[in-house]
């Protein structure tokens, strides 16, 4: 990263420093001396010096295989007066119309080779309070024998159904659609928790589900077939079966009555099952998380997220349900001060001038002239 302290009045000098992948400055022996940029000199006087963006070198890729990210630090610098070159607020560079350099870019290394890929866990198979199982698909990113079977993640785990605070709720009845025998009134039935939030119907007891469709048309209506609404398709994708309840019912003095099925056999019973098809079976799969991009402080960790339809990569997965591919990671705080034994003045910093113009309070010069600043304050 180009950093610097001013030399003679009116000359702003920038020089290179060696920066680790997470933006922390390290000893120059870690960088290739042959690629070190030459120092730059700008001739200007005080307020006439334009602000400028300075960037560190790009970090290493956050992943050693597959797709990752590279990072660098970006700071605004300006010569505030002859002999005083300092980092300043970013607003100064932005106000000067300078486009801020990128701080992150994608990087790609060789393919990661065999690794286990996982789909999301299914809903717990149990209703409230009971024990059940959750399942997920586990697949190898290449041919199955190439993945380490001893490290294969589990595809099933035990779970307990949600708390028993689920209940059916029903809206008001809608208008009657026709005459006796054909007329229907409908209402909306939902499974809700105690907070009133609508949840999956599978979490309420189907045996106690209220009728969503009701006969109507006359105060007295003889027995006839009444079809309830179709339940959800039993497959989350691809081909499945949907079912509905078909009852033999009527009205007596305006009151709902159910009858044995033989009372309705004069007309054919409507279908109780039908084939259904939901979007093609495309599923999101994820690899395990990479290591954090930093060794201290806040960084990011990454994983691959792929959509498969069967064995082939596909585009048909639900984007709203796409798992996160990037996640913040917080490690122990980074040290703010250099260790005692590492405190020394940089050869490239004009520490005599730093002391003269009292710049030790500035974080950069306090570090660049650590030894001189510490002697001054002791």
From TrEMBL:
Per the record, the major location class is secreted
Show the taxonomic lineage.
Answer: Eukaryota, Metazoa, Chordata, Craniata, Vertebrata
Indicate where this protein resides in the cell.
Answer: Secreted
Alphabetized GO MF terms: metalloendopeptidase activity
Record-given protein name: PLAC domain-containing protein
Please provide one cellular component term from the Gene Ontology annotations of this protein.
extracellular region
Q: Which organism is it from?
A: Junco hyemalis (Dark-eyed junco)
Name the Pfam families on file.
PLAC, TSP1_ADAMTS
For biological process, the GO terms are:
extracellular matrix organization; proteolysis
